[in-house]
């Protein structure tokens, strides 16, 4: 085995050859290669979709690197067209693509970008999805309807996604819809809170503040937001939840509020 490491063949070994010395030299060379592999910089590139190209440009500028050379567009009949203009073999790729409206077009675009990278032998593919489309369809609310958030997770996993990075998912259990792909659910609340404390909340003077969750799925975020504001010195905080009664998807015919909001300033996350 050691002879293989130093590149020798049995037929090339002459009488009197110092095999032990060669093997030791081979071990040193192998150890040096391992050290170089550990200290070598990790190769990674950023691929931008069309959903928010400006965001991808700002991320790349912050990191001091260019975006990948690629063409992401449409054929004359509206089909998605993806072409990579540079090699991604053995490179870690981060794809920045929200599945915001138009949701289906952006989702299919993300799917084809991931498949294209996989066929081009990318080492890993991380999907950065700031807005995760279909996230609100996370459970069956009536008979014979899909759990679309779970189906999107299956779609991304089957495409070959190694990791997903999202921001403030509608509810945390969406991470569990990915059975083999790790999901990082980041939050922007810790970045927004200092701005509110500095620029907005002083206008309320000493009025009590109520953090209102738009639905049951947002309770965890509202609770976290309240805790962050409390750590920043904001007092008189409370929590409330709105319960919507829908006659059809997207149509609210009635609403109830769980919690005390009378006489308070409400801060509510937009649904």
Would you tell me the structural class of the helices and strands? alpha/beta
Taking pLDDT < 50 over at least 5 consecutive residues as the criterion, the unreliable ranges are 1-17
The share of residues in helices is 25-40%
What integer is the average pLDDT? 84
**Strand element count:** 11
Number of helices: 7
Query: Mind summarizing the main beta sheet?
Result: 5 strands, parallel
Portion in beta strands: 15-25%
Distance between the termini: 63 Å
| Global Rg | 27 Å
Order of strands, widest sheet: 1-4-5-6-7
- Assign an overall shape: globular
The helix-strand sequence is HHEHEEEHEHEEHEHEEE
Fold topology:
Blueprint: H1 2-5, H2 19-39, E1 44-48, H3 53-63, E2 70-74, E3 80-84, E4 92-96, H4 103-119, E5 124-129, H5 148-159, E6 163-167, E7 183-186, H6 189-200, E8 209-213, H7 219-231, E9 237-248, E10 251-258, E11 265-268
Parallel strand pairs: 1-4, 4-5, 5-6, 6-7, 8-9, 8-11
Antiparallel strand pairs: 2-3, 9-10
Structure description:
The chain has 271 residues and is α/β, with parallel strands linked by helices. The protein has helices spanning 2-5, 19-39, 53-63, 103-119, 148-159, 189-200, 219-231; strands at residues 44-48, 70-74, 80-84, 92-96, 124-129, 163-167, 183-186, 209-213, 237-248, 251-258, 265-268. The protein has a five-stranded parallel beta sheet, sandwiched between helices. Strand 2 and strand 3 (80-84) form a beta hairpin. Helix 6 (189-200) crosses helix 7 (219-231). The chain starts with a helix and ends with a strand.
